[in-house]
Amino acid sequence: MRSLLRVAPPVLVGIAALIGWELLVSLGRIAPFILPAPSAIGHELVAQRGNVWDAALASGLNAFIGLAWGTAAGVLAAMAASRFRLLSEVSIPLAAVANALPIIALAPILNNMFESTSSVPRRLVAGIIVFFPVFVNTLRGLREVDPTHRELMTSYAAGGWTFTRLVRLPGALPFVFTGLRQASSLAVIAAVVAEYFGGLQTGLGSRITSAAAFTAYPRAWAFVVGACLLGLLFYLATLLLERIVMPWKTRLLS
Amino acid sequence: MTAVALTNVSKVFNPGRPDEVVALSGIDLTIGHGQFVSLIGPSGCGKSTLLRLIADLIPATAGTVEVAGKPASRARLDQEYGIAFQQAGLFEWRTVQRNVELPLELRGASRAERRARAAEMLALVGLADFAGHYPAQLSGGMQQRVAIARALAVHPPLLLMDEPFGALDEMTRERLQAELLAICAKTGTSTVFVTHSISEAVFLSNRVVVMSPRPGRITATVDVDLPARDDAARQSPAYFDAITEVRRALRGDAAAAATS
């Protein structure tokens, strides 16, 4: 009952927005190539569900692989940077520079480095995008060690890897997930947008561009909805993983 | 053999720099087996620093620190002491039981041994029913009990405590004081207890060591001899006499304290 009350308001607002959109398009006589009505998009989504599903699988796989290697690289780099002061002094500005790069704009350049049927450039772009939030948050988490914990571990004569494994890594987990929550949707966006620049035509991004090129706007929107759902799925999966990995955070609520 | 022996110990932070601080100077202190000794003094008198020297968390600038008959650094590696701080400092990602097991784990104890010892310790502090809880699900007093159980898990001959009850309310504090005394009596553990509560120091200790700041040094030691340490003792004349004596010593009236 309580969860129903919590879910109801956003759902109602969403339905109201859709109805408003529908009325705006049909009563306002807006040309369908400018803004298709939600009913048209919905119709197209049902008609194209097989295509949307296949395209979402292709983009989703790229996003997932990018998310996986970007996260692994981010966490490992943060561990290295927190271990060696010199490395962290060098790496933080470098990471900031890398973050300021218009990475999605690198996609066409990366496309040229690989053959045209390769998914590697998209996975690279998604991973690079994921790297930064994970790296920065994890590094912050690894550095914030409770002074009492530090003294305790010293009193147990536990240092080095034991200290990292037992104290710093679990202590940094909430920070890792803060980064991962940002990164999960970013990975999907990066994987989809990277498809705009040629290469394999299997993913959501390429379907959106080709549908738009054929002025099939409701179909383009149907794939946009697919991309939105995919991003949402990644985000929710991250939240679920967070609950599973950190039971001590969720047990408080019970 | 003595539990702790400090000879002419001093500690200087940031030596040779403009922010040099002489935290402790000329400290001589011997603590016998099974004794309960409190260190008391105003903030900045170096009582916590002294405890950390005994624990070998920081090195002494001069003098020798011995714990259980060996150099403090050796004693730390051998886990000859357990330590508890004002912050319980539990690992929030471990259950209560796994928190208590940690020092045993680092010692390489087997799983069965860890289980048994953790159960024994949690029973000792009256938290046997909370083994599966996470620290954040416990009250402050219960967390501090877990910290004590963890400090005692390896059965160390010495227990070091840095204002462990400082953040607790008065009722909880008095209950935990009584429990701590019972535990120490049962296990025969020697204890060094840092506090800035006069009544707490007197109630708990065989000996109260009074310190003063700039530079941190021992100005007086007051022996406390209460017939029993229970609620009646908190009303006894001996208790109030000792409190007066410690208070005088803290005011710098050291000569009066020594002769009375």
Automatic annotation (TrEMBL), chain A:
Record flagged with keyword Amino-acid biosynthesis: no
InterPro entries noted in UniProt: MetI-like, MetI-like_sf
GO terms for biological process, alphabetical: transmembrane transport
Keywords: Cell membrane, Membrane, Transmembrane, Transmembrane helix, Transport
Pfam assignment, any one: BPD_transp_1
Domain ABC transmembrane type-1 residue range list: 52-242
Entry's transmembrane regions: 12-35, 55-78, 90-111, 123-142, 183-200, 220-241
UniProt key word rRNA-binding: no
Cellular compartments annotated: Cell membrane
Annotated GO CC locations: plasma membrane
Protein topology in the membrane: Multi-pass membrane protein
Family, per entry: Belongs to the binding-protein-dependent transport system permease family.
Protein name: ABC transporter permease
Phylogenetic placement of the source organism: Bacteria, Bacillati, Actinomycetota, Actinomycetes, Micromonosporales
From TrEMBL, chain B:
Nucleotide-binding as UniProt keyword: yes
Domain of life, per lineage: Bacteria
Keywords: ATP-binding, Lipoprotein, Nucleotide-binding, Transport
Single Gene Ontology MF annotation: ATP hydrolysis activity
Record-linked CDD domains: ABC_NrtD_SsuB_transporters
UniProt KW Kinase keyword: no
Domain ABC transporter, first and last residues per copy: 4-238
SMART domains to which the protein is assigned, alphabetical: AAA (SM00382)
Record protein name field: Sulfonate ABC transporter ATP-binding lipoprotein
Originating organism: Actinoplanes nipponensis
